[in-house]
Design a protein that fits this description.
Elements: E1 2-10, E2 26-34, E3 48-54, H1 70-81, E4 88-93, E5 97-105, E6 113-120, H2 123-133
Parallel strand pairs: 3-4
Antiparallel strand pairs: 1-2, 2-3, 4-5, 5-6
């Protein structure tokens, strides 16, 4: 079930003292999808998927990739849409479909820092999101 479907744009500037997604402008088509509902005492480990695809909306806009900024993007979306970063499947559609693995790294700082790695999407994950990516 699609919960949200929108274009997320950022200008690369800081506002309200918050760090931007990246210091360069960009935009992404975002779909937030509920993969399943808990029933019969069975719960999904990762019940939500966020599917992302670069959406260059203006010819003058850079084609900024989230590859190095996915943690900033995930934190902003999680805050705005009440998502649990670790229980969300973060998927980017580009030449390949990849999944971001965000691992919290605890340090002596007030905000959570993340170690980021990317992996290929698994066949079962692709099967779950396939109905939602045809128009992206």
């Amino acid at each position: 079930m699609i919960l949200h479907d929108f274009i997320y744009e950022w200008d690369g500037k800081t506002t309200k003292g918050e760090k931007p997604v990246s210091w360069w402008p960009g935009s992404y088509h975002v779909k937030i999808v509920k993969l399943g509902t808990d029933k019969n005492n069975i719960s999904y480990l990762v019940p939500i998927a966020v599917i992302l695809k670069n959406a260059k909306t203006q010819p003058s806009m850079m084609n900024t990739s989230l590859k190095n900024y996915i943690h900033n993007f995930a934190q902003k979306l999680s805050k705005e849409y009440n998502l649990n970063i670790s229980k969300t499947l973060w998927i980017e559609i580009d030449d390949k479909i990849r999944v971001a693995v965000l691992t919290p790294v605890q340090k002596n700082v007030p905000e959570t820092l993340y170690s980021i790695s990317w992996r290929s999407i698994r066949p079962n994950e692709l099967a779950m999101i396939k109905p939602y990516i045809s128009d992206m």
